[in-house]
Structures are given as C-alpha cells and as structure tokens.
Amino acid sequence: MQAMAGAAAAAARAVQLVKVFGTGDAAVEALRGVSVEFAARAFTAIMGPSGSGKSTLLHCMAGLDAPTSGQVFIGEVDITRLSERELTKLRRDRVGFLFQAYNLIPTLTAAENITLPIDIAGRGVDRAWFDEVVGTIGLTDRLSHRPAELSGGQQQRVAGARALVSRPEIVFADEPTGNLDSKASAELLAFLQDAVKRHGQTIVMVTHDATAASFADRIVFLTDGLVVDEMSDPSAERVLDRLKSLEI
Amino acid sequence: MLRATIKSLLARKLRLLLTALAVVLGVGFMAGTLVLTDTATRSFDGLFGDVFSGTDVVVQGTSAFSGGPAGPGGGGAEEREPIPQSAFDDVGAVQGVAAIDGDVSGFAQVIDPETGDVVSTGGAPTIGNSWNEVANPFELRSGSAPVGSDQIAVDAGTASLADLAVGDTVDVVTPVGGRSFQISGIVGIAGQDSLLGATLVLFDLPTAQEIFDREGQYDHLYVVGEEGVNPQVLRAAIAAALPTGYEAITGAAAADEQTEAIGEALGFLRTALLVFAFISVFVGAFIIFNTFNIIVTQRTREIGLLRALGASRRQVLTSIVIEAVLVGLVASIVGLGIGFLLAGALRALFGAIGLDLPATGQVIAARTVIACLAVGTVVTVVASLAPARRASRVTPVQALRESAAPTASLRRRTVVGGILTAAGTAVLLLGLFADVPNELAFVGIGAQFVFIGVAILSPLVAAPLATGIGKLFTRTPGRLGTENAKRNPRRTASTSSALMVGLGLVVMVTVLAASLKASASTALDENLRSDFILTSTNFSPMSPRLAEALAADPALGAVSGFRQGQLRVDGGVDFVSGVDPVSIVEVANVPLRAGTLESLGDDATVLVFSGTAELKGFQVGDTVRLTFARTGPQAFTVGGIYTDNSLLGTYTISLAAYETNFAEQLDVIVFADKAPGTDTATARAAIGDVLEGFPSIEVRNQIEFKEEQARAIDQVLGFVIVLLLLSIVIALFGIVNTLGLSIYERVRELGLLRAVGMSRRQVKRMVRVEAVIIAVIGALLGLLVGLLLGWALQQAMGSIGVKEIAIPVGRLAVYVVVAALAGVLASIWPARRAAKLNVLEAISYE
Questions:
Q1: pLDDT tens-digit profile of B795-833?
Q2: Cβ contacts (< 8 Å) between A117 and chain B: which residues?
Q3: Which tens digit of pLDDT belongs to each residue from B532-552?
Q4: Contact flag B757-A92 (C-beta cutoff 8 Å)
Q5: Cα B139 to the chain's mean position, in Å?
Q6: What pLDDT sits at residue A2?
C-alpha cells in the first residue's frame, strides 16, 4: 500500500470524537469531543499528561476501540461504520502498529515477525522493499533470530520494520520508546523519521517523552479529553516549556 | 499461608473445576462399579433368601464341587445324582415333617414364535423346572399353574421378551426335542421378572419327569417342618434317613450356596470393571500432572513473590500439595455422586447384552465411599508432587524477571524415562511369560510403568513429530499453530500422553482381537474337516437326539457331536470335551504329538492339550485324577497329547466316559459330513429337514462358521472399546484443559495477532491446528505402545492358541484419523475463547 501521493490530504482524521467509559456515577469521559487531522506523509505526535485520553484517541483512530460518538476516517473511509470483520481487514491491510512492548510473536524469527501481517493476508512479500527496510534497521544478520535472542531495542526495531514492510496507509505507535534506553530510543525514532522523509510513510505516535516528540513534524497536545494546542517543527525545549504550561 | 492457598484456589474457580473433572470421571467409574456390584450382591442375597424362605430343609445328591446354578452351557441341572421315590417316601415319614415336595430340572429353551430363535439373553441359562406346590418360590402373576403334558408357565421376563401371553402356544426345545405347549400362566420369582436374565419354563411334575428322564425320581426335595420344629434338628433327622450319596441341608444353607456362586461371578465382574476404572483414573492422573505443571509455570511470579516475602520452600511445596488434596477431595466427592448415576448406566449397558442385574435400592457401602475418596485424593496428590517440587524451587528473583522457566536437564529425563520403560517392560514380560503369582498385577503394573516411561521420553520426539504433522498445514494460521505446539515440547508431550494411554490400550485390544480372529481362522482351516457345523444360538446346548437324527439320515456321512463340561484337576477347574473317537477323525484333524486317538476307545483314557501337559508335567501313560461333580475323583490314563486346542479344549474323553461321569448330556456342537456321492445342496437340504424338529439350531459350512466366530470376537472387542472410551474422553478433555490454560497465558500475543489483522476465523484455525497436532502425537505414540503391548500379549497367548499376529492396518489408520478429528472437537471451546478476546483488552493486558 503506497502512502498517499499529494501531501496535503489527510491520511486520517477524527471528527468530534467522544469516548465515555463506564456508566452513571462511575462514568469517565476519556475523550470529550476531539476533532483532529493527521496529515499524510508526516510524522505526528500526540502528547499529554496521563489521563489526558491520548491512548484512547490512538485506539479509536486505529480501529481498536469504538468511540461513543463521532467519526473516524482512514483516508475517505468512515471506519466507525465498518463491521468487526471489515475492521480486522483494515488493520491487516491498511494500518500498521507499534506498541510499547510485546510486539513480537516469540516463536517466530525476526524475519517471520516482520512479514507477519502479509502472511496473515496470504500475500507475497516485496523482496526489494523488505531488504531495504531491514537494511535500514540494521538487522540483516539477525533475521533468523527469535525475539528472546534480541535486545529490547532490536525487538522494537523489528516491530517497526513489521509496521512498514506491508506499506500501510498509516502507522500508529503507542509509546514505542517507553521501555528503551536513550540510545535505543534515538535509533528507533530516527528509523521512523527516515521512513516518513524518504518513503512518505504516515506515522502517528503517542508519547509522553518530550525528546521523542521532538522527532515529529507536528505535535498535538491533549488534556482532559480535549485538544488544547498544537506545535509544528518542535524542539525538545519548546515541548518541555509547553508541557509545563499545560500542567494545571 | 493456608489462607493464601485457599484464596488463590477460589480465585481461579474455573481452573479448579476443569482440573478436578479429570479425576471426577475416573472416580465416578470406580464408584459406579462398586455400587452396582454391591447392589447386585445384596439383591441376590435377598433374592435367594426369599426363594428358600419357605423351605426348612433341602435334600439333594452330593456334589464333588459346585458348578453353580448356571453350569457351563448347561440348563438348570447341577451335576447331582437324582433322588429315588423311595427316598422321597422315607423322608416324608420322618418325624417333624409337615410337607414335602420334589422338583426336577433340566434345560428348556423357548422359541420365539416370531423369529424362530431361542429366547435367551446373553449367556444366561435356559432353565426348565417342575412346578412346586410346597415352598413355592414362583409367584403367579397371571393365569394358573401348568397341569397336564401340554401346559407350561413362563417367567415374566421371557414373556415380555417374546411377547407371550396366557393362552399362547409356543415351541419349547428340551432334551427330548421340540414340542408345542400352551402357556397357562406367567410367573415372577421373589419379586423379580426373571432370575438374572435366565429364562424359566415350568411344567407340571409328571411332564418334567418325563422330559428330563427322571421318571420316578427327583433332583431336589423341599421339606417344610411342623410348627415349632427347629430346622437344624429336622435336617439331622432327615440326613439320618437318607441313603449314601445324598445330603440334607437347611434352607438357609441352600440359599447361601447359591449366593456364594453368584458372588463369585459378580466378583469377576467387579474386578474386570475396576480394571477399566483404574485405567480411567490413571489417565486422569496425567491430566492432573499436566495441569498443575501449567499452573505452577503461570504462577511463577506469584510464588517468587511469596518466597521473596519470606515463605520457605517447604511452605510452598505444602501449599501446592494442600491444593492438590482439596482438589482431589472435592473431585472424589463429586465423583461419588456421579458414580451413582454411572451405576445406572452400567446396569443398562449390561442389560443391553442380556445380563439383568437386579437393582433394588442402591447400596452405598462405607467401603465404597472410603475407597473412592482415598483413590481420588491420593492419585491427585501423587500426580501433583513433581510440579509441587518444581514450585518449591522457584527463587525470589524470578518474581522480578519475566524470564523463561529453566528447562531441566534433558539428559536426566532421558535416563529416567529409559529406565522406567525398560523396567516396565521387564515386569510386563515377567507377568506374561514367567510363572509368577498374581500375573494380572504384574502385567498391570508393568504396563503402567511402560506408559509412564514413554510419557517421560515423549518430549524428545514431540517437536520433530509436530514439525512433521505440521507440514500438512501450509498457511500462516496453521504454521503458527504448529509453532505453538512446538514451543513447549514438555507440555505438548504431557498432554498427548494421556491420549497415548487410552488409544494405546484400544490399539492393543484391536491387535489382539485381529490376532485371535486370524489364529482361529487358521486353526479351523487346518483342523476342521467337516462339511457342516451345527450349533444353537449363542452356543447354548443341544439335545443329543439331533446328532442321532442326523446320523440316521442317508444323505449324511459321519456325524460327530461334542459335549463339554467342567471338571477339577489339581485343584483347578477346567473344561473337558466328550467326543466319539470313531467319528471324530472324519470331521476333524486332531494333531497328536504323542499317543493315539484310538486310545480313547477304552473309556478310562484322557487326551490332554500340549500346553497343559507341559505345565503339569503329564506324559503318555501317566495316571491323572479327574474330579467330576457327579462321580467324584476318577482315575484316567493319559492316552495322547494333542497340539491344537481350538476345537477340543484342554481335556478330551470319550463320549461313553462322558456319559458315565456327567448327569447332563447335551451337545454343544455337532459336525456332519455329507455322504460320499451326495452333493452339498442335497445334504444341506436334508439337514434342513431334520432341523424342523429342532427349531433353535443352525447349520453352517466352514466359511460361514468362521465368519460367525469372527463376528463374536468383534462384538467383545466393541464392548471392551466402549469401556475404554471413558479414558479417551478424559484424555481429550485434557487437551481442552491445556489449550484453555495456554490461551489464558498467551492473551497478549493473541491480542497482537488480532491487532495486526488476523481474523477470528484464522485464530480459531490456529488453535485447531495445535489441538490436532497434540492429538495426533498422542495417537502415534499410542499406536507404538499399543502395537508392542499387543504383540507381547499375543506371544504370551500363543501357547493357548493365539498363534498368529495380525495387524489391521486399515483400522489402525482410522483410529489415527479419528484422533485427529477428536482433536478438532477438543479445540472448539478453546478456539472460541481465543477468538472472542477483546483486542484492546488483550493488548493492554497487564
């Protein structure tokens, strides 16, 4: 799946998303009417303090959770109207994932993990693209290793490669550097950034780490279930300043 | 610590339930068996007590040993000397006798008017008796007692089986041949419809005496004493009035005699069923072991935490053992409950093959409760010991790490497994081939160790086998399923092992049955020469008049009838055949290793089967003492030793000798040749004409006879497999359990797969493939062990006639396929659970 040509179009967008957990007195409003667009061929970060609803927003965007009201578009498709089966296919064919941990199947080799979504779909792998991605993450000689034989950083890079090899329209990453040391974090983020710049991949990442966020092209700030600010071309200091002012 | 254990137990109630279920079923089978046989025994006690309740003293001929009311292939007659009318009169004159009656009995078969077959149930005897006036155990349910030579009464069980009512006419086959009678009445016996499924025909006394060749004689006398007379005193007085060769016993003693004989038979039944129950419990133990292993692995962090907080190794071990004790107790109690239901099911199963066990009120002996609780709990605890030890070895630091469990040395496992398998094989072979006391225990224990040994070795082959089987599944979900099966070879192998036991035993009996059929077929081919073989339904006995009638027919040449009865040699009971030495050579080949067939001509000679002769050290010319029930010990000379026992059994004497030593003269099988120059069709038609007078008898040629034998063996095989089915169900259930627990373990991984786009259907397929692989591994291992056990058994039984081994490859292949399908069945619930996971919850699972 090619990333959409024409950078100005939105790869995905949320329209008035509301998500409420629980009922009655115990009801928690995680999202209280979030509308945001994620540009194609761009690296967008979503930041906010814990409880801000950033993970919930990601889950709704990715089709992993259904909003209480509002719409989510991947491309031109309103995914809130899709059936469970169609959502599964969406996740398989058009969306890529990168979680904080437990990204890999322990019984499969790195190579098999990378091609997992493609294998599930029963499609063939684009060998040239595969080799290029693997070369970029620098793990060509560890392809036959199992996750237990790789370091945390290497595992996350394998997961990142998996997210990219199937060329999804959009990749959703949930705190991908949360468990990594600073060096491994930097390597992973550089890899993601490279994918965006050189291959036009669209990436949306949730993070609470200012340094990680500074790798993005644009940051969306969330507090108490609402978008409160945006920043383009961020730097780590500016992000930290902004975060401080958001703390109430 | 105890509180923590119990709380942890209750928190995972589902897991507790599933673990317990394996033991519940095995214990239930055990409880069911014990309840059933205890109930039957008590009912019989009551039954015979009732039957003899009105009788103070019974007079009968003395018997050297009791063959029981159900003599082999016989009617109701025991082997006792008939009582002359003079004795009847003498006893009647004794002081204190209020009333006296005598009865006569023999075999009588009712012919179902619709089917033309003998009305019989399984192997139950077909009894003919005279109607008693005094101390009558028969209760008239409808109609009246039989009077005259053309009236009979039948038991209610037979009446309902053949749809008979008072006034109907029915054919009855007796020692004098077939005759028509009118049903004058229908009776019950001490409240039951029948006596253990035996059919009963009642004639009036003169008719019975005529039919059973007892004119002026009786088989038993029943005496009722005057009011106030002590039965013991009366018995002594009567005994004094009897000639030698007869005895008087009290009614109570007579009841005890019968009960004892039944008790023996029930004892065999109980032992046989308990063997199957233990097999089920054994398989259940595999499941418990497996489950506790998985639980310990899953709780490694929790245990590590407890250790970090100061719990000692022993406390951890004890807590697991306590968990096992609680699970075992609860399972045993539930099993007891199920046992009562199962007792009913077993009774129905036996009823279906004609063995009617009375069930008046379930007897739940204290012994049953204690035994079931003990077995269930002990087995659960023993199975949990190894996992408990593993739990006690968890170090505190493992609470903090997400490390994989350290795999114990593979080499030690190979050694232990190898030793157990070798030891088990040795014990098994000893039990089969050496002369040891209690061979069944040796064989049983040997087999158990072999199974356990192979189970310990099985992880070594689990991964390669899984890879091999997995080649059938090429798409991604299938490949992932294969990887999952290979991921933990010990767990996979352990789960498969339960199925290995069940299926291994099924394979073993299948091989044995096939070998039996092949051997029997070959033996018959080699030794049977006659054109026709005549038998009655279920090998029930036939009147000797049949052989006489056939011999007289011009279309037939040699006719030879066989009789069979019980005798005692060296304290052990065995069977003896009576044959006509002249006609036998025409119809059968008797391969003699030593001596001659003609030696039977002098009627004090016996021929012995070589296997027995070797065992007992008999040689031609030796004198042996054969003890007959009727005539006591008799000296016979060994005239020959023959090498095949498929037709003649263990001992053979001449027909004349048989007639001298047995009261009941009935043929079990008759061989006939067509006359030289006559064609087969004519001869067969002639036989058909003769059979008009013998309604229950069928004629077959050699091929048909062999088919009939094969069919009978298959029937028994089917019955045994049904009894083994429970252990297979338990094993399959172990697969469900393991898969379910594994899915619980792999929640996050499943969430990941669903997140990256695996559909629910693909997830189910993945689980299904894993289940099929586990099942097929179990089937293949079972095939291996079963073949070895079957071969060993066949070799052991070679000396008693199972000379060939036959391996029904087609049927065995079907078993493997069925195992695979069963794996699919077992995967249904776990697959559904895996597919139903909420993706979001799964990936956020902490």
A1: 887 767 777 888 999 999 999 999 999 999 999 999 998
A2: 756-757
A3: 999 887 677 788 888 888 888
A4: yes
A5: 33
A6: 46
- The tally of CA atoms less than 13 A away on the side-chain side of residue B556 is 29
Query: What's the rounded Cα separation, in Å, for the pair A189 and A205?
Result: 10
Shared domain for B182 and B247, answered yes or no, is yes
Within 10 angstroms of residue A85's Cβ, the number of other Cβ atoms is 11
State the pLDDT confidence band at B71, using cuts at 50, 70 and 90. Answer: very low
The pair of structure tokens assigned to B553 is 């027919």
Q: Kindly report the nearest CA distance between residue A23 and chain B, in angstroms.
A: 18
Selection from B569, B748, B583 nearest residue B671 by Cα: B583
Decide if B484 touches A, using CB distance below 8 A. yes
Q: Which of B700, B723, B741 is the last residue of a domain?
A: B700
- What does DSSP say about strands B199-203 and B126-130: parallel, antiparallel, or unpaired? parallel
Find the range with the poorest average confidence among B28-32, B48-52, B449-453, B528-532.
Answer: B48-52
Residue A1 contacts B, CB cutoff 8 Å: no
Nearest one of B785, B841, B799, B801 to B457, comparing CA atoms: B785
Considering its fold, how many domains does chain B have in total?
4
| Partner B contacted by A35 (CB < 8 A) | no
Taking the CA of residue A118 and the nearest CA in chain B, the distance in Å comes to 9
Nearest CA in chain A to B759: A88
> Chain A interface, mutation test: which of B745, B756, B838, most A Cβ atoms within 10 Å?
B756
Residue contact A120–B755, C-beta within 8 A: no
- Residue in A203, A182, A184 with CA at minimum distance from that of residue A192: A203
Query: What integer is the mean pLDDT of B211-235?
Result: 87
**B632-642 and B623-628 strand pairing:** antiparallel
Whether residue B476 and residue A119 make contact (CB cut-off 8 A), yes or no, is yes
Touching check for A115 and chain B: CB below 8 Å?
no
Residues B162 and B66 in one domain: yes
Contact: A120, B487; criterion CB under 8 Å: no
Rg of chain B over Cα atoms, rounded to whole angstroms, equals 33
Q: Do A148 and B748 touch (CB under 8 A)?
A: no
pLDDT averaged over every residue in chain B: 84
Residues B381-407: what's their mean pLDDT? 76
Q: How far apart are CA B74 and CA B105, in angstroms?
A: 11
Write down the pLDDT at residue B645.
72
Mean pLDDT of A160-171: 91
ipTM of this complex prediction, to 2 decimal places? 0.79
Identify the domain containing residue B421 by its residue range.
Answer: 416-457
- CB < 8 Å to B762, chain A: 120
Task: Provide the number of CB pairs (under 8 Å) joining chain A to chain B.
Answer: 70
Same domain assignment for residues B651 and B521: no
- Are B187 and B225 in a shared domain? yes
pLDDT confidence bin for B402, thresholds 50/70/90: low
The partner residues of B102 in beta bridges, in order of sequence, read B221
